Amino acid sequence: MKIKSVRARVFEWKGKTVPPQGNFCSNAMDLVYKNPASQHAAGKDTMNTFRFHQWTVVEVETDDGIVGLGNVALAPRIAKAIIDEYLAPLVVGQDPWDYEYLNQRMYRATHAWGRKGVGMAAISAVDIAIWDILGKSVDKPVFKLLGGRTKEKIPCYYSKLYRTDLKEMQKEAETYLKQGFRAFKMRFGYGPQHLQQGVVENLKSVEAVREVIGYDNDLMLECYMGWNVEYARRILPKLEKFQPRWLEEPVVADDIDGYAELNALTSIPISGGEHEFSLYGFKQLLDRKAVSVVQYDTNRVGGITMAHKINALCEAYSVPVIPHAGQMHNYHLTMSSLNCPMSEYFPMFDVEVGNELFYYIFEGEPVAQDGFLQLDDDKPGLGLTLRTDYLQQFNIIE
Ligand SMILES: O=C(O)[C@H](O)[C@H](O)[C@@H](O)CO
Ligand SMILES: [Mg+2]
């Protein structure tokens, strides 16, 4: 079997969107004052617009007609250009079963500029499509090629609860508690620029959600890199009484020493990884005890080939892996490793941030039942197909 072609298309949502409400979510841009002269790189999908409304879909086809589906959501247009210009020529004509060789070929060929960020995200998309091919060619789901079923079903946590009105947040938490979720991730809306009043607001929001879900359910706290170490040092001790399962991405991903200091500061585990890349990136996080929960995203980190290696590395360090975002490319990794205790889960919503766009492009994503997800032993490959019913609401860039 040889790879015959690689097709990368950008799906640009032009349908209805729900603009971010309230203080929504602290993020890395918060520490940079808002300069009307240059709003978010001319309105593009950047950190604080929370408009990740494009997604690149990759179709890798073999000479015997198997088509593997991959995807990338970071800088989708740039990722497409990288795939078209650099990665496709490296894999066409090759045997998809040589997936380690092909992953190394893409990683090393683009190493001068691609070892972090969108270069690795583009590699991830091609690699994910290759694994979809492998599963389809032997009529097995991808997780069966990675280690098989380690769980009867996958526990998942409800992930949304962006910082809007506290009563709205409590209603939202109530709704999903009633649907059987036993774990919830909420977002802070305030950071250093909001001074002590912001600290009070942040604490109030955690108290409000705890009021609804009680203390016999997990609560995770998301900062999305919107704080700095000094602010986190001040607020973490005040958060301990709420017993969060983890506090996520307090500071920018490059401040590994900052993560390590905060991870050792209180009883609250610090999590991160959705903005880290490659096996070596995670070795650094583990060696420096920067995180207590690893959260790579398989469509960013280097694909299934890379994520599978990171799963093994994290197991050796006894640091659990709970991938960012849910989505099939992550669910197969979680199912196949005992060191992956649960998945993140965004239910399907009207398009808001963009995390939910996956549901509008792909068919086959499992729907959580009572806080659990199931993967099908008999669905080959990733178990995804392209939807046609929302196609009219996308601009598709070939
Ligand atoms: O952990 C997450 O789910 C991500 O950080 C979200 O995708 C981002 O939208 C912030 O909530
Ligand atoms: Mg996050």
From TrEMBL:
Molecular function per GO: L-rhamnonate dehydratase activity; magnesium ion binding
Keyword Magnesium in annotation: yes
Entry keywords, A to Z: Magnesium, Metal-binding
Enzyme class: lyase
Gene Ontology terms describing biological process: carbohydrate catabolic process
SMART domains: MR_MLE
EC number: 4.2.1.90
Cofactor: Mg(2+)
UniProt domain Mandelate racemase/muconate lactonizing enzyme C-terminal: residue ranges: 166-269
Pfam families with a match to the protein in the record: MR_MLE_C, MR_MLE_N
Subunit structure: Homooctamer; tetramer of dimers.
Record-stated family: Belongs to the mandelate racemase/muconate lactonizing enzyme family. RhamD subfamily.
Name of the protein in question: L-rhamnonate dehydratase
Organism: Ramlibacter pinisoli
